[in-house]
TrEMBL record:
<keyword id="KW-0863">Zinc-finger</keyword>
<dbReference type="Pfam" id="PF13920">
    <property type="entry name" value="zf-C3HC4_3"/>
</dbReference>
<keyword id="KW-0175">Coiled coil</keyword>
<dbReference type="InterPro" id="IPR013083">
    <property type="entry name" value="Znf_RING/FYVE/PHD"/>
</dbReference>
<feature type="coiled-coil region">
    <location>
        <begin position="37"/>
        <end position="106"/>
    </location>
</feature>
<dbReference type="InterPro" id="IPR001841">
    <property type="entry name" value="Znf_RING"/>
</dbReference>
<keyword id="KW-0479">Metal-binding</keyword>
<protein>
    <submittedName>
        <fullName>(spotted green pufferfish) hypothetical protein</fullName>
    </submittedName>
</protein>
<feature type="domain" description="RING-type">
    <location>
        <begin position="159"/>
        <end position="194"/>
    </location>
</feature>
<dbReference type="GO" id="GO:0008270">
    <property type="term" value="F:zinc ion binding"/>
</dbReference>
<keyword id="KW-0862">Zinc</keyword>
Length: 200
């Protein structure tokens, strides 16, 4: 009745009455919460993707930096090696130049020595009298004959094939004494007269 209705209104006003939530309001609240959660999940997923991309970029930059540092270190080591090689080459050049000057000095001394007229320059020889030049020519020919004799004696002892080992084999039937024990087995004819070798 009315009293019951008034009592219900009074209870609502006084706070002793708790109305049930509206089904429409509850649906809207649930939809809003679900939308916020989906948006937060999307934002979180995007943040994860960006973080992963940043990590990959940072890793690439780090690797590039390490590669640059390695290249710089190798270049520095190569520069040190090149500098050491340059200094060594410079030292060798200075040593060679010093020895060349010493040899040049020795050569100049020999050229000025009266006992070694063969080392005179053409300009100095041109200033000598004709009789002196004939004397030098005669001495040269004598020296050359002596050298030829020594060369012949040395060659006559060596195998005519290898020119290294001494002759030690007498070929039959030509009787030529021209081969060493290493070359003789490889020949079927005498290398001097082309006679067929029967034995040795």
């Amino acid at each position: 009745g009315l009293n019951g209705g008034a009592s219900s209104i009074w209870d609502f006003v006084s706070g002793s009455f708790s109305p049930s939530p509206s089904p429409v309001f509850s649906s809207l609240s649930s939809a809003a919460s679900s939308g916020d959660l989906s948006r937060l999940l999307r934002d979180l997923d995007e943040a994860k993707k960006k973080l992963k991309q940043w990590e990959e970029t940072w890793l690439q930059v780090k690797q590039a930096c390490e590669a640059c540092q390695k290249d710089a270190h190798e270049a520095k080591e190569q520069a040190k090696t090149a500098e050491a090689e340059r200094q060594l080459a410079e030292q060798k050049w200075e040593e060679t130049e010093r020895k060349l000057k010493e040899f040049q000095g020795d050569f100049d001394v020999l050229c000025r020595s009266p006992g070694t007229p063969l080392l005179r320059s053409y300009g100095e020889l041109d200033q000598l009298p004709l009789s002196k030049l004939h004397s030098i020519q005669s001495q040269l020919r004598s020296d050359l004959d002596l050298i030829d004799g020594v060369i012949y004696q040395l060659q006559s002892k060596k195998c005519i094939v290898c020119q290294k080992h001494d002759r030690c084999i007498v070929l039959q039937p030509c009787q030529h004494y021209v081969l060493c024990e290493n070359c003789a087995p490889t020949k079927t004819e005498c290398p001097y007269c082309r006679t067929k070798i029967l034995k040795w």
